[in-house]
Amino acid sequence: MMLPTPRALYRGLRKLLRFLAAPARRGGRGGGRVIHTYRGYGSRSECFLMGRVFLQPGLGLKLPGPVDDLVNIVRRTVRWGVRDQRVWVRVGRVETEVVTDSDGYFSVHLDIESQLPAGAFWQRAELTLLPAGHPRGQPPPASHSLPWASAQIFIPAEEVDLGVISDIDDTVIYTGVASKLKMMYRLFVQKARHRTAFPGVSALYRGLFHGGDGQARRPLLYVSRGPWSIYEMLGEFFHLQRIPYGPILFLREWGATLQRPLPRRAKDHKAMLIRRMLALYDQLPFILIGDSGQQDPEVYARIVAEHPGRIRAIYIRHVHSRPDRDTDIQTLAEQVAASDCEMVLAEDSLAMAEHAFQRGFISEQALGEVREESRRTVT
Question: Does pTM top 0.90 for this prediction?
Answer without folding.
Answer: no
